[in-house]
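U., I forgot to send this yesterday:
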Amino acid sequence: MTDERGGAARQGEERRAGHRAGDGHAHHGHGAHAGHGAGHGGAAAHAGHGHAGHDHAAMVADFRRRFWVSLVLTVPVLALSPLVQRVLGLEEALAFPGSLYVLFALSAVVFFYGAWPFLTGLASELRKRQPGMMTLIGLAIGTAFFYSTAVTFGLPGKVFFWELVTLIDVMLLGHWIEMRSVMGASGALEALVKLLPSSAAKLLPDGSTVEVPIAELRPGDRVLIRPGEKVPIDGVIVEGRSSFNESMLTGESKPVDKKEGDEVIGGAVNGEGSVVVEVRKTGDQTYLAQVIEMVRQAQETRSRTQDIANRAAHWLTWIALGGGAVTLVSWLALGYPFEWALERMVTVMVITCPHALGLAVPLVVAVSTKLTAQNGLLVRDRAAFERA
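Result:
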């Protein structure tokens, strides 16, 4: 029974650590749960959360699914697009009665399913009156879809369905890459939590020991750590001396010799001696919990590159609106029909959304996160990391 309770407490710690690390994705507004402890009361705190630790993985899977569904539907959209058929010389081979309505139906699925995260992001940014990347993407794909829909059902002009679906594909790919890289950092934090044992040998007043879950330890309790065992929690040695391997926690490759009065860190591996450690820190006060919290906060902060991209998207939004308005007014002033001027306006607004901007920033985040993780670095401040 004790082992089962210990296992439950430890699983609660791992899931909450993953939840903390994964909640910092800037585009989706998932709040951080900073108030949950990394040790004390782990099983009880976890009871109300179910599978909260898997939220970020579910979001990554959702973007992956939306990307692949949209990509598969993009193939027939490209094949049925009049412009693509004309360029490839396949108008007679691929054209058939009603093909434009099939093209509309396929594009509508990509628009409402694949682009749904961007449409909700657009609404969120407009509510906050802070137009950014989501507004720019939403403006481009919304203009392309609704104008092309009007053309499909009678408005003179040309459709932009293939431009619409390829833009959605690129943006989905970029966000999938970015979120997957952040989840990789979350996995690294979960691996840190797994360094902790599920239970500890608590010393009783009569000198005997009893195995208890680490979540039940309190400051002042004493635990016995035998040779080869992991330190269950932060504390101070009160009896014995030994060497401790802290490489996974501090980066120190050589074992560190410690004696009575020296502090030990939860997760370190005891060497050849037996020691008695008095618990000093539990919950959010432990070294490991502070590391998890620090990295979670770093993931929530936006890097300088992301800020620049968002500011660029903000100005590009106004440039797209201004450019579209100027285009419409100019063609009308020159005496061209409204349908002609409207088509040129839509063209300007669609091409203003840069495909490269949707991939450049996510790729920077992904590569930097991967390289730092491979080299055992925890990034505390993204801006400082970029300056370095």
